[in-house]
Amino acid sequence: MSTQVPEEQTEAESSADAEAETSVESHQERRMREKAEAHEYRNAQKEAQEEVAAADDSVQLKVFRYDPEVEGKQEPRFDDFYVPFTKGMTVLDALMYARDHYDPSLTFRHSCRQAVCGSDAMFVNGQQRLCCKTQISELDWPVRIEPLPHQDVVKDLVVDMQHFYDQMHSVEPYFQGDENAPAGEEQTQTRENREKIKMSTRCIWCGACMSSCNIAAGDNEYLGPAAINKAYRFYMDDREDQQELEEHRLRILEQEHGVWRCQTQFSCTEVCPKDIPLTEHIQELKREAVKSNLKFW
Amino acid sequence: MQEHDVIVVGGGGAGLRAAIAAHEEGADVAIVTKLHPVRSHTGAAEGGINAALREGDDWELHAYDTMKGSDYLGDAPAVETLAQDAPEEVIQIEHWGMPFSREDDGTVSQRPFGGLSFPRTTYAGAETGHHLLHTMYEQVVKRGIQVYDEWYVNDVAVTDEDDPEERSCHGVVAMDVKTGEVEGFKANDGVILATGGPGQAFDHTTNAVANTGDGYAIAYRAGVPLEDMEFVQFHPTTLPSTGVLISEGVRGEGGILYNADGERFMFERGYANNEGELASRDVVSRAELTEVNEGRGFEDEYVMLDMRHLGEERIMDRLENILHLAEDFEGVDGLKEPMPVKPGQHYQMGGIETDENGHTCIDGLYAAGETACVSVHGANRLGGNALPELIVFGARAGVHAAGGDISEAKIETGERGNIEYDDTEMPVTPGEAGIRESSDTTTAAADGGAVTQDPTAVVEREVEAERERIDELLSREDGVKHSQIRARLQKTMTENVNVFREEGSVKQALEDIRDIREAYEDVYVEDPSRTFNTDLQHTIETRNLIDVAETIAMGALVRTEFRGAHWRKEHQERKDEEWLKHTLIGWHDGEPEVFFRPVILEGENKTYEPKERSY
Fold first, then answer.
1. Which of A179, B52, B364, B538 has the fewest C-beta atoms lying within 10 Å of its C-beta?
2. Which CATH architecture has domain A47-159?
3. Alpha-carbon gap: B270 to the closest alpha carbon of chain A (Å)
C-alpha cells in the first residue's frame, strides 16, 4: 500500500535521466531543464485529465472543496476529477489518484488503507462510509464525496474531530477493574463474556455513527453511539464486576444527554463500517438502567 | 514554547507504553503525534504477542527462538530482556482490560507462530494490535496524559558538539497540522522517538501511508547511527492488489500454501521440511518468489493461502478479521476460496541504535518500537515479536527517561568501544550532497560558530530554522511534486533492494537515490495554504524517506553475505567469521560513514552458539 504514482506518468523523467547520463551539463542548465520538464509534466497532466474524462472507463468524482484562507476556496464548491477506473478501486484510491496526479492541495485524512485506523470516514453519495473499504464499482456514478456532516469542516474533506473525542472521553473510557489483581497473574474471563463484548471492542473511532445520528445533530451534548458503545464495552466486561462501579457507569449513561436520547432509528448501526450493533447496545444499556433503578424501589 | 519533562514522539504502541511508564515515574509527559493515537499503525498488527506465560515454556526458550530467528544478529542482552520482561508486560495489559481471546478455563489463549518452539503467541482474534493500541490509549486518557495530536514533529533540538556522543537533546520542533503553526516543545528530561516504520520507501507494503520513517531520519541527522538497516522483512502473505496483511495466524492455525501446480511447495519443494508453512518469514517469502520466478505462480505473481479446511467455526473464532480483509480488499471469500498472497515489505528490523533502555548515544534522546534497533530482531524478526518489543522497550525507555530505577545497559552505543570502519566503495557519494543545504542540520552553529548549549536557546534556534525551512518550501512557485519523487524512490527500492539483492542492482538503487536527491532540490509545495497542508507534510516526509532508503541500500551493498532477510546473489552463505557484526551508518553532518560493532552473543547464563538455521 503506497502512494505510488503509476509508472507511465514518469516517462518524461526517465528519458531525461538517460540524457543526463550522456551529456555533461552545468548545474544551472540542469535546473532550467528540469523546470521546463516540470512545466511540460503539468501541462501533460492537464491533458491527461481531459483525456481520461473523455474515456469511457473513467469515474467522475465530485469533491467538496473548502479552505478558509485560500482565495477561491473560501466559498465551498465542488470540483470534478476524472480518474481512470481500475478493478478493485476504492473511493480512497480514487481520491489519492486525483491528489497525486491532478491537485496536490486536495486534502483528506487517511493512513492504514485497511479499515482499522478510522481516518477516512466521509459522506459518499449521501451516506457515511469508510472510503478505504468502499468499492467505486458499488456506487452510482458520478461519485459525490463530502466531509462528514454535523461536524465543522477544517478544509476540503477534513472535519474537526474534537467534539467526537470529547464525547468518547466523557464516559470514562478505560478499564477500572480490580487494582489489586495479583501481579503476574491474569484475570480470567469466560469465552462467552469475551464474545459478549467482542463486537463493541471493534470500534475504530471513525465517527461515522455520530455523524449519521439525528439526535446528535440536534443535541450537541448527546453522548452519541460511539461513546455509549465504549461504555457498553466496559459495563459488560465481567472483569469489571464491582457493583459500585457498574452503578457509576450507569449514572453517566443515564444522564439527560445519555442513552434515553436514542430514538432507535438505527442510522448508526447502518453506517458502522465494523458492523457493530450500536442501537442494540444502547437498548441493552437502557434495560440495564431500568433494572438497576428498580432495585432501589 | 511548551514544556514537559518527557516528550514522546508518536502515539502508537511504543509511544503510549513509554508515556504511561514515564507518567508512573512521576514525570510530566506529553505525546506529540502526527496522527491521533488511535490512528497509529500498531492497530493494523494482527497476529499476537509472544510471551512465555505457561508451564513448559520459559523465557530462555523464547530468547533462544528469537536468537535463532535473528540468524544470530540479535544482541543477547536485548533478546533476553525482551523474553524476560514480556510475560509481566502482557499480564499488565491484561490488567488494563485488553480483550484477549480466551481458553475454556478463562485464561488467555496462545497459538503457534512461525519459528517458535512453544505456542506462546497471545492474541485477541486476528486484530491484536487494534486492541493493544486502544487498551493503552484508554490508559493514557485515564491518567490525563497530554496528547498533542496532529502535530507533525519536524526535528529534535540537539546541541551541536562535534561528537554526537557529546550532544544532548532538549526537545522537539513540531508543526500543528491544522494551522501550520510551528512551535517548540522543551523536554526537561528526555525525548522518546516512537514513530514507527519506513514502509513507504517501498511500493508494495503492509505499512500505512503515514509510515514514512520520520524518526529514523530525524535521529540519523542529529547524529545517532542507524543500525542494520539492510534487514527489511518482507511478509510472505500480503494481498497482491493492495499489500494488506494476512496474518501469520492463518498459517499458525493450520493454513497451507500451494503453487499453481497444486504443490504444497514448502514441503514438496524442500524449502522447510520440518516446519513447512511455519518456517521463518524470510524463508517463506523467498520460497514463494522462487516458485513464481520458476513459473509455478498464479498469473506470474502470487501463490495461494488456503484456510478452508479449518472450518467456519474455528475461522470465525480466531481469524474472523481475515475474512473481512480478504473480502473487502481482494474480493475473495476465505471460507469458500483460497486467498492469493505474495511477499510485501512489512517491517524494518534495523533502526535507531539504542541500548536495552532505549537510550541512544545522544544524552536525553531515546527511541523505542519499530523505529529503534536494540537489537532484538537481528537479521529477521519472528512473528509475534514486534508487539512485545513495543511494550517492553517502550516501558523501559519511559522509565529511564523519567529518571526511574532501571538496570544499567550492557549494550554500547555511538562511535565508541570496539568498532571498525568500512572501506566499501560506494558508486556515488551518499548523503546530503544533492539536497539543498537545509536549515535542519542541527549541528550548524547558528551565530558565527558560537556554541549554544542553553536548552531553551537550543529549542528556539531549532524552531527558527524549521520556520525558515517551511516558509522557503511554501514560497517556491514552481518545481517538482513530491509525489513524483516519492514514486521514483519506491520504484527503485522495490526493483533493486527487494527480497533478492544483487550487487549491480543495489548500486543502481544508490545511483537512483542520488538522482532523486537532486530532483528533491527542486521540490515545491503546490498548496499555498497553512491550514491542514498535507502537501507540505508529505513533502517533508519524502525527504525523510530518501535518507532512510539510502541507508537501507548502503547496508545492503556493504554486507557481503546471506543472513536472515538479507539475501545476496553473489554471497550465498552466512559468513560468521566475518559478519557477526552490526552495520552502523553515521550521518556525519551529511557525509555518511559505515562502521561495524560485534554482535553480543554472551547471555546471562550462556553464550549463544551460531547454528545452521533450518526449519
1. A179
2. Roll (3.10)
3. 31
Point out the residue among B99, B204, B531 whose CB comes nearest to the CB of A197.
B99
Q: Quote the pTM value.
A: 0.93
Q: Is B288 on the interface with A (CB under 8 A)?
A: no
Cβ contact B141–A169 (<8 Å): yes
Which chain B residues have a beta carbon less than 8 Å from that of A29? none
CA B101-B107-B113 angle, 5° bins:
55
Distance from first CA to last CA of chain A, Å, rounded?
Answer: 59
B251 in active site: yes
Is B134 part of the annotated catalytic residue set?
Answer: no
Q: Residue B228's pLDDT is what?
A: 98
Q: Where are the domains of chain A?
A: 47-159, 162-180+188-295
Question: For residues B243 and B342, what is the distance between their CA atoms, to the nearest angstrom?
Answer: 8
In CATH, what number does A162-180+188-295 get?
1.10.1060.10
* Binding-face residues of B in 142-171 toward A, CB within 8 A: 142
Domain B2-232+347-421 CATH superfamily: FAD/NAD(P)-binding domain (3.50.50.60)
Number of Cβ within 10 Å of residue A22's Cβ equals: 6
Each residue's pLDDT, cut to its tens digit, for chain A (297 residues) gives: 554 454 444 444 444 444 444 445 666 666 666 666 766 776 777 777 777 766 668 999 999 999 999 998 999 999 999 999 998 899 999 999 999 999 999 999 999 999 999 999 999 999 999 999 999 999 999 999 999 999 999 999 999 999 999 999 999 999 998 777 788 889 999 999 999 999 999 999 999 999 999 999 999 999 999 999 999 999 999 999 889 999 999 999 999 999 999 999 999 999 999 999 999 999 999 999 999 888 765
- Chain A residue with CA closest to B434: the answer is A27
**Interface test mutation site (partner B, options A7, A117, A164, max chain B beta carbons within 10 A):** A117
The C-alpha of A215 sits at a distance from chain B's nearest C-alpha, in angstroms, of: 26
Question: Are A235 and A258 a contacting pair, CB within 8 Å?
Answer: no
Please state which CATH number belongs to domain B235-344.
3.90.700.10
Domain limits, chain B: 2-232+347-421, 235-344
**CA B318 → CA A188, B8, B19, B273, distances in Å?**
18, 34, 31, 27
